[in-house]
Design goal:
- Belongs to the CRT-like transporter family.
- Pfam families: CRT-like.
- Keywords: Membrane, Transmembrane, Transmembrane helix, Transport.
- It is a multi-pass membrane protein.
- With about 350 residues, the protein is mainly alpha-helical.
- The chain has one domain.
- Helix content is about 65%, strand content about 0%.
- The chain has 14 helices and two strands.
- A two-stranded antiparallel sheet has the order 1-2.
- A hairpin with a 5-residue loop joins strand 1 and strand 2.
- It is globular.
């Protein structure tokens, strides 16, 4: 009874949002959850569309169809990382101008910020490389992201010593079973893997597994972010600014992404034959994003949608981690809802064919 009353009082506590608007914690968390879910759905839908819209040989890549280059997933990952530095850097400059950056921010240890950025980069290099529609079926991507839920519960137990409730534990087991069922057509060809989108044969199993494994560092990132967001209690000036956190996390993510350039020339995993080919592909990707090299507006448009969706997800997720229960709730709210919307989209819409 006391626990219920405590939760009710916490939900009724007022929180001041932008423009001085006051609302309850419960209402604010609903808004934050909406931002996190809408951003995650936008990511899930736009990522494979961006990668395959910019793949050499597809009909929607260039206006003249003569450009030999193509955008590699590594470019998508690294360019998005750099874009987050720019976006949150502008936000940080505004926060400095308004006097919102405090001594707590300036003195906050960067070790945790680096770990969040590093795990974010590892998540990116695994997930983005597996996200082409020719490797992992787009409808399957929306489902496999739920692997974050049980992994988050496990890491919260190991890192934060926060034990999940029996109900949450049972739900995580059900999630694992459902993911195994979704992969059955890829494991057993007789169930229809030959007609399903994505890679065939052993690659049809390995690429979805790579996509799933990419969410292990994503879960670690969220757990450490929860630790950062809840390290200090009390007034706003005693807590680290979310903008400060997002900027430095993005800086370290980009630096780690730059250090992982060699992953794109790994045979069978990357998309470049050698370092010279890698440079050509990155240059092509950059020019193509802005309409150069004969590209249409599709790569740039889809890339912009992905980057903005990711930024909104970062922002909403960070606020939800600070004011709600923690990383488990973020994973449950974000990925369970994003799965439903993303799967419906890919089943309702025709995914453009990939010709390599």
């Amino acid at each position: 009874m006391d626990r219920t009353a405590q939760i009710t009082n916490e939900q009724r506590r007022k929180l001041t949002l932008c423009f001085g608007w006051e609302t309850t914690i419960l209402a604010a968390n609903i808004i934050f959850a909406f931002l996190a879910v809408s951003g995650q759905v936008t990511q899930n839908v736009s990522l494979p569309l961006w990668i395959d819209a910019a793949t050499g040989g597809t009909s929607n890549t260039t206006s003249n169809g003569t450009s030999p280059g193509h955008i590699v997933p590594y470019f998508v990952f690294s360019f998005a990382s750099f874009s987050f530095v720019v976006i949150f850097g502008v936000c940080l400059a505004v926060a400095f101008y308004l006097g919102r950056i405090t001594e707590t921010d300036l003195k906050f240890p960067h070790t945790l910020l680096f770990l969040v950025g590093m795990f974010d980069a590892l998540n990116g290099v695994l997930v983005v490389n597996a996200s082409s529609g020719s490797r992992t079926a787009p409808y399957l991507q929306a489902i496999l992201g739920n692997f974050t839920i049980p992994i988050t519960m496990l890491l919260r137990l190991l890192v934060l010593k926060k034990k999940p409730t029996q109900r949450k534990f049972i739900c995580s087991i059900l999630v694992l079973l459902s993911l195994f069922i979704c992969l059955l057509p890829k494991i057993i060809p007789a169930l229809g893997a030959d007609t399903a989108p994505g890679a065939k044969g052993a690659a049809g199993v390995l690429w979805p597994l790579c996509f799933m494994i990419g969410f292990v560092p994503a879960a670690a990132m969220n757990v450490i972010e929860e630790k950062v967001m809840k390290m200090t209690k009390g007034t706003r000036r005693d807590q680290i600014s979310l903008i400060w956190f997002l900027f430095w996390e993005s800086v370290y993510q980009f630096l780690c992404a730059a250090a992982l350039f060699w992953t794109d020339i790994i045979p069978g995993f990357g998309n470049s034959a050698d370092i010279h080919d890698f440079g050509e592909n990155v240059a092509f990707g950059f020019l193509c994003f802005f309409g150069g090299r004969g590209c249409t507006s599709e790569p740039g448009t889809r890339g912009t949608v992905f980057i903005l969706g990711y930024a909104v997800s970062y922002f909403g997720g960070g606020l939800l981690l600070r004011h709600a229960e923690g990383a488990t709730l973020l994973a449950l709210v974000t990925f369970s809802n994003a799965t439903n919307v993303g799967t419906c989209y890919f089943h309702a819409c025709t995914f453009p064919p990939v010709r390599r």
